[in-house]
Every structure is written in structure tokens, then in C-alpha cells.
Amino acid sequence: MNGKNDTYKFDAAAALKAAREDENNIFLSLCCDEAVVENAADHGGPLCGAPVAVKDNIAVKGCKMTCGSKMLESFVPCEDAFVVEKMRRAGMVIIGKTNLDEFAMGSSGLLSAFGAVKNPHSPDRYAGGSSSGSAAAVASGIVPVALGSDTGGSVRVPAAYCGVAAYKPTWGAVSRRGMVAHASSLDTVGIIGADAKLCAQLMAVISGRDEGDDTSFDLDIPVSGNGRDLAGLCVGVWTEQMDAALPEARAAVETVCSALRLSGASVIDISCPAYDLAAQAYIALSASEAASCLGRFDGLRYGADANDGEGVEQLRGRLFGPEVRARLVLGSALLGFEEYAPIIDGARRRRTQIKAEMERLFCDVDLVIGPTVIGCAPRIGEKRSARRERLADAFAAVANLAGIPALTLPCGSSEVMPLAVQIMGAHGADELVLSAGIGIEKAIRGING
Amino acid sequence: MDENMLSRAVGLAGLELGERRRARVEKYMEEMLAFMSPLTDVSDIDDVAAELRDFDTLRDDTAADPNGTALIADGKGNADGLYVAPLAVN
């Protein structure tokens, strides 16, 4: 079935063919065949007939869900995730399940038990993670939109590296029922799209209250996904992030600032002192929550094969990959040892401070912008400062700590690799972030000719 | 982190690791604990402290005035004139 809306023409059959021919290790399994494509429900909404890829930590009934881990290699869920149900009802066609860093832990795209995802722009560069397959599926044109998950930048980082748009909603605006938890107080379902308008349209499909997820709530997202006039908006440029970014990433943000000013918005510098230690707070909280969330995986349920005489600890030690093992030990130590209680306490306090400072900031500005990542996608094997990389992870993770919406948009390139900017809004201001994002895309096109 | 603590942490995580995997985890733990150590100095929690002070005030007021008459008179009751503090304090 072919579908189209006012801007896009969708071809699910072509998407299925392209997914079968994928050479970038994007898909772990396919969820449909030609008959499914032909018989997709004709809902009539703007994304009716649109092919969509789904990160392999979100349940699609009857399709394997591995989370990029040997632990779940044979697991087949018996229900759709809430967001998948909603996409089916909107007439979208689930093409396949995409590769990811194991259990959504990582930002490189190199940490799946089933091999790294190749960046469609350059195979010797990181695709980014953890929603590496979903970002690469959109960037290579196989699908116009894809679902990912975002705990600390996991849709925005790969989207930035692959040159596409991605959206992390306000925490709770999209149900997480059927998505495997990494760190529940930070996790959201995320959206990756060829542009901001597609992200807005998919957000309109999947957002809203779900009785099966008590943290979810209704949010008004216009289905049309039209951009807004930028005149009159006040936008803050996050100085701490600009200072920490590489020159090419700063230049991308400055391009957007120029476009905003030309469109009649005012642009001011803003500062959030509590941002210092955001990266450390994110690591402490996400690792400790992950140790709890992944406790359920014992290697005996969910389809893993135990060798003779192998106990739970041996199975977990064998089936989890190196990054997951390390984070589980770290999180368990932080939760279990009195000696480390001050670290967790400090992380919780810092998170509270960040939320309070962001709330105050959004009394003065409508939106905050900064670089999504430190620079363009790194070369695989390139020597980089681990400390600097960890600190730069907070560019994206700060939105998860604060629970606020954040959109990344591609803007320019360096060494032929895409650059990106991030736009954040106040808690619940999803409509503003998305509609302004559409407007900013148009403004960028205007100044780039 | 000494050898004994590492063993306990690996056990708490529900893992059994061979020597090589254990050494890798040990290195990661050392790096990350050092990276996160500045969090132990985060103590300037003005907003949280202020919020707690508010709750303390409400609790004290509740003890002194269980019917909430004074708070309602102060405009701290809800729109229906009902006193809402005790549940929030608890």
C-alpha cells in the first residue's frame, strides 16, 4: 500500500525491499511481508501507509525482541507495545526491528551483541547510539520515521551523527508500556524522522495517556505538524555547552542563531550553573537504576539457552556484554555500599538543582539551544579524551535529568559529516519545541539558500 | 575499590566473571568512581532545603492548629477552604 500526506509520499513496499537489502547492519529482524504491506489499515491520517522501523527494545507482537543482547536472543513478545498499537491503528507499516547498543546502553552504535551499525554517511564513523539502527534506517532513506528510546540522548546522538532529526518527548508524554526499561526515571520512547515535521506527526500518533503506564499523561500535539512563526520567540543559547563543544558544533549553533534573528526571534546567552556535574549525576543515576531494571534477566526465562549446570550468575556473566556488565556492577555498588551513598545522594541533589534551574530559565526564555553532540561523528578507533566525551554526553542527558522535551536537527556539515543543534523546551512544551523546530528548519533552509 | 569490595559488587550485580572480564570491570569501576567523586561535595541544595522548610512549617502549623483554621485564614487552604497539608506532609 502506498500512502501520502500533504508533504510526503510513502512507499512501504520499497521500504521493505530496501530493508532486505540493508548492508549497514541496521535491521535485526523484519516484521512484515508484501501481504502485510498491501493490507495495512487505511486510517486516513497523515502517516497512513508510512513504513516505520522500531528499535529492538520495543515490543512488536510475534517478532523477536533481542535488545541487542544474547540474553534475549530468542525472546518473542506476545503483545505489541502501546506505541506500536497506536502506529498500527494509524495505518503505519512496521517494517522491522533495528539494531542497538545492548540494552540501550552506549552512545557509539558499536555495542550490539549482533555487530556494529555502519553510519550511512561513512562506514568508518560511529553511527551513534543507542538507537543506532533506527537513525541509520532513516538516514539511508529506508524509512521516513523510526522509533527509538532515549535515556540520556539515545535518539538524539545517533540522529546527530547520521544527519537526521530526532525527538525526545517530555517524560511521561508517551507510554513506555512494552519498552524494555534501562533507567525508568530517565527513559522515554523517542522518535527519529527525516525532518521535524515527521517527528511531530509521529508524536501526534504515539503520545497520550495509557492506562497501562501510570506515568503517562495526555498532551495536545496538533496532527498537522505545521511550523510556527519564530518572530517574538526568545531563545537562550546555553553558554556552558557552547564552551565545551568543538568549533564546528559551535558554528552550527551560530548558524541557527542567525536564522532565528533573521526570523524576528531574540537570542540571548543563558547559563545553568547546576549543569556542572550533570554528566556525573547522569552516570550515577542511570547505572543504579539499570542495576535494578535488568535484575529480572536471569538467563532462564525469555528464551536464553543454559548450558548444563550453569547457574544464574554464570548465565548473566556470559550473556550480558561488557558495557552492560560494567554498568551493572557499578550500579549495584552505588546502591549496595554505604561508602558510595554520598555519590548517589549528590547525584539526586544535583538533578533536583538542574530541574529547578531549568524551570527558572524557562520563565525567561521560550527555548534553549545548544549543540546536540560535541562535534561530528568520530572515526571508529580514533583516540579521544574519554573524560571530555563523558562530559559532552551531558549535552543530551541533561534533558533526561530535567524530564523536558528536546529536538535535534541537522545543520551543516564538517568533513562531509553532519552537524546538529538541539532545541529544548519547558516541561510539557512539546508542541512549542516541535512547531518551532519545523520553523527553524525552514529558516535554516532560507539562509543556506 | 579493594578486591573484597569488587567481589561483593560483582555478586550484588548477579554476575560471575572470569579473571579477564573481572579486570575490565575493575578498571571501569576505578575510572567511573573517580569521575563521579565530585558529587560527594554537592550540598548546596537551596531549593530542596526551602521546600523542606515549607513542609516543616506546615507540619508545625498542623500540630498547633489541627483544623487548619489559621492556614485557611492565611490563604493556604485550597479553593474550597479545605486544609490539604497533612497528606502532603506525610
Structural summary, described in words:
The complex is a heterodimer of chains A (449) and B (90). Chain A has 449 residues and is of the alpha/beta class. Chain A has helices at 12-20, 34-38, 82-89, 132-139, 156-162, 196-206, 239-244, 247-262, 278-293, 312-319, 322-336, 341-364, 386-392, 394-402, 430-448; strands at 2-4, 9-11, 27-30, 51-55, 93-98, 145-150, 165-168, 188-193, 234-238, 266-270, 367-371, 406-414, 417-424. In chain A, 37% of the residues lie in helices and 15% in strands. In chain A, helix 8 (247-262) packs across helix 15 (430-448) and helix 9 crosses helix 11. The longest helix of chain A has 24 residues, at 341-364. Chain A starts with a strand and ends with a helix. In chain B, 13% of the residues are buried. With 90 residues, chain B is mainly alpha-helical.
Question: Care to give the gist of this entry?
Answer:
With 449 residues, chain A is α/β, with parallel strands linked by helices. Chain A is built from 15 helices and 13 strands. The longest helix of chain A is centred in the C-terminal third of the chain and has 24 residues.
Which pair of protein chains has the largest interface, and what are the residue counts?
Answer: A-B, 43 and 35 residues
The profile of the biggest β sheet of chain A is: 11 strands, mixed
Radius of gyration of chain A: 20 Å
The structural class of chain A is: alpha/beta
String of helices and strands of chain B: HHHHH
Average residue pLDDT of chain A: 93
Task: Determine the mean pLDDT of chain B.
Answer: 69
Describe the sheet with the most strands of chain B. Answer: none
N/C terminus separation of chain B: 38 Å
Task: Return the structural class of chain B.
Answer: mainly alpha
Strand arrangement in the largest pleated sheet of chain A: 3-5-4-6-8-7-12-13-11-9-10
Count of separate DSSP helical elements of chain B: 5
Shape of chain B: elongated
